[in-house]
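BUG: 3D viewer hangs when loading the predicted structure for this chain

Environment: internal workstation, default settings.
Expected: structure renders.
Actual: progress bar stalls at 90%.

Input used:
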Amino acid sequence: MPILRTLLASALLLVFGGAVLTVATDGFHAFTSETARRLAVRREPPPVPAVTLETQSGAHVNLAELRGRWVLVDFIYTRCLTWCLALGGEFAQLQDQLAAPLADGRLVLLSISFDPAHDTPAELAAYRQRFRGRDHGWLVARPTSEGDLQQLLHTFGVTVVPDGIDGYVHNAAIQVVDPQGRLVLILDAGNPQAVAQLMRRKLP
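Structure tokens produced before the viewer hung:
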């Protein structure tokens, strides 16, 4: 009988544990917070806050002004020697691969710095120039207030942690904002061809 009770208790624990795991991982689909975030964005796209950014030319643009277009967004800081270099290279490739919708205004590339104290318009312009980025279709910008920066990081799910040597550790992705101003998709960095193909399907 003690053995039977032990087996029964073990079975109940397994069932209970499996149920908890199923709920916690969204039916076993989300084993990481990043996966969970991507699933949540697909199900309920959050609106992008209508904050004002200062661009590489010193001009100011409110994100609400970009509604009516598709926007590909990445988050960078100009001193970064890892992910941000890769993302800059990918956006430069996307300028070539999506030249037509960028030229006629159906699509915008937007790199947002999360280091606005250092990344002045001159630094932002130099970052884009490093990749031979052209004027049409690619904005490199910084938030104009700390509150706006925090809103953006929260909405886009970007984690930024000082690394102790005057830089940052951060996650990286290409994020897709639809013409209604909603974050609808989060894409892996590292495959600009796949991003270009996806946007060609979405653009009218």
